[in-house]
């Protein structure tokens, strides 16, 4: 008699979760085939160029010239982490025997939804179905999560692996065995391999769970703990600590740590950090922190450990402040704390009348609809559907030669759609939207010397976005404008009208 109601309940729960995932997928399919320039375009187009280089390298019947150009454009980007996501996309393109940029978005969505699934399984194991289902709404429908979970960035895969890894680690800590320890260590190691910054979350999150459940002395005495920790460090170490021609160990430290240590004494840094947390709804972040203490021991230790890892991560690296996608893992940290609220809320509502439960359901539907609408606005703006044709036509119209300049997404849109490399021209001034004035009094000899140093070896200067006033005046005063349109200006650096001195 009791088996049938339980089976029916399980079926209803499964259907409810499937409906949530279907809704989460549907909102992510808005503008699915639009170019990726809306969010972190420079980083996504870099990954696209790298994946294209891999695809043409593996394509048996590729045109040799096309293959060589694809390899050259891919090689212009430095190696910072193993290019696993790019390889997956390239292999998928190979299966379809054509280059489809939207496949990267499809894979990113699949990775994120996989992370959501294992987050749900983790919370359900600790708190039960109602709390897990309610907490799942946050990573599925938070506008920031919707937008960034479709990006061609390794961070999406890293976060998904973190959730699979912590689900595995939670199972292992509750019911220890060598097989579960092996699985947890391997998956967490893969997360760090994908992006080395995951070491902060793996280290602090794992330590938090172990200290909460077993204490320091017992944890250090268990061989399985050393297996998990050893695998989590060994797997990425085989990549990051081995010198290679295309990768220098310590490059991360020199690039992302040393240049930013002084900011720790600057109060504006912490104000920027606080503003970055608004991506996650600051009120919900505070509520999440408070209700973290109502979580069961292992989950509480994990959540507090992850917050500690994020704190150290932000103090050591500039990423969480200066690039939004570096904070993607915070979505699930906040969601874990909200699971504590969800469990408490369910216990209270279970004792209330039906009308109050229906009111909560209506409120949740409103939140889902509003969040989906906010995400839809972001995914549909701006309209970039004309970008592929624009860059392809512009590239075909340009004279042959070596280019330097300033274009959208650090010139990567041209690099991908136009198959042409443009060296990026960095300038010290602010962008100037005014009409150019060929006035020599608006720049001095130091400005000219800086300009000549930067453009040395280039034949043309191209601009498709506003440039600083000084550079603009140097160009108009000294060099002929050989191509121009509504969005672009091309100057001939080899044939100056008045040679700069």
Characterization of this structure:
It is a single chain. With 501 residues, this protein is mostly helical. It has 2 domains: 275 residues, no CATH class; 106 residues. The chain has 23 helices and 5 strands. A hairpin with a 4-residue loop joins strand 4 and strand 5. Helix 1 runs parallel beside helix 6 and helix 9 packs parallel to helix 12. The relative contact order is 0.10.
Short description:
It contains 23 helices and five strands.
Q: Which spans of ≥5 residues are poorly predicted at pLDDT below 50?
A: none
Helicity range: 55-70%
Alpha-beta content class: mainly alpha
What separation lies between the terminal Cα atoms?
Answer: 94 Å
Beta-strand portion reads: under 5%
Main sheet characteristics: 5 strands, mixed
> How many beta-strand elements?
5
Strand order of the largest sheet: 2-1-3-5-4
């Amino acid at each position: 008699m009791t088996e049938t109601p339980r089976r029916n309940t399980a079926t209803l729960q499964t259907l409810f979760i499937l409906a949530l995932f279907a809704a989460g997928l549907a909102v992510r399919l808005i503008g699915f085939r639009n170019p990726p320039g809306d969010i972190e375009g420079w980083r996504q187009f870099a990954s696209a160029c790298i994946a294209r280089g891999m695809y043409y390298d593996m394509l048996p019947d590729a045109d040799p010239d096309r293959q060589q150009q694809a390899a050259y454009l891919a090689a212009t980007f430095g190696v910072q982490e193993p290019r696993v996501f790019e390889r997956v996309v390239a292999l998928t393109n190979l299966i379809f025997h054509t280059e489809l940029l939207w496949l990267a978005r499809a894979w990113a969505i699949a990775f994120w939804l996989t992370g959501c699934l294992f987050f749900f399984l983790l919370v359900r194991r600790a708190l039960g179905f109602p709390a897990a289902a309610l907490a799942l709404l946050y990573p599925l429908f938070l506008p920031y999560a919707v937008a960034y979970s479709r990006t061609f960035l390794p961070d999406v895969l890293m976060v998904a692996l973190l959730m699979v890894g912590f689900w595995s680690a939670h199972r292992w800590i509750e019911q220890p065995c060598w097989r579960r320890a092996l699985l947890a260590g391997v998956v967490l190691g893969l997360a760090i391999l994908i992006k080395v910054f995951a070491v902060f979350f793996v280290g602090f999150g794992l330590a938090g769970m172990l200290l909460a459940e077993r204490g320091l002395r017992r944890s250090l005495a268990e061989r399985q703990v050393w297996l998990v920790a050893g695998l989590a460090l060994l797997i990425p170490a085989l990549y990051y600590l081995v010198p290679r021609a295309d990768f220098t160990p310590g490059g991360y430290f020199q690039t992302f740590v040393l240049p930013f240590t002084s900011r720790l004494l600057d109060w504006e840094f912490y104000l920027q950090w606080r503003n970055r947390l608004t991506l996650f709804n600051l009120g919900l972040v505070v509520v999440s922190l408070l209700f973290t203490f109502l979580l069961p021991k292992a989950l509480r230790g994990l959540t507090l450990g992850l917050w500690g890892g994020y704190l150290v991560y932000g103090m050591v690296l500039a990423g969480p402040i200066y690039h939004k996608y570096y904070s993607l893992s915070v979505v699930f940290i906040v969601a874990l704390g909200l699971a504590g609220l969800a469990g408490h809320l369910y216990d209270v509502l279970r004792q209330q009348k039906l009308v109050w439960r229906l009111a909560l359901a209506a409120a949740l539907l409103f939140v889902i609809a509003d969040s989906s609408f906010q995400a839809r606005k972001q995914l549909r703006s701006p309209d970039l559907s004309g970008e592929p044709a624009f860059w392809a036509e512009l590239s075909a119209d340009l004279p042959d030669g070596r280019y330097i300049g300033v274009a959208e997404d650090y010139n990567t849109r041209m690099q991908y759609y136009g198959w042409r490399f443009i060296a990026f021209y960095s300038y010290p001034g602010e962008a100037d939207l005014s009409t150019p004035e060929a006035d020599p009094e608006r720049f001095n000899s130091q400005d000219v010397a800086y300009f000549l140093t930067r453009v040395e070896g280039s034949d043309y200067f191209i601009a498709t976005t506003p440039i600083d006033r000084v550079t603009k005046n140097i160009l108009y005063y000294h060099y002929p404008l050989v191509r121009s349109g509504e969005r672009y200006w091309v100057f001939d650096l080899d044939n100056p009208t008045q040679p700069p001195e």
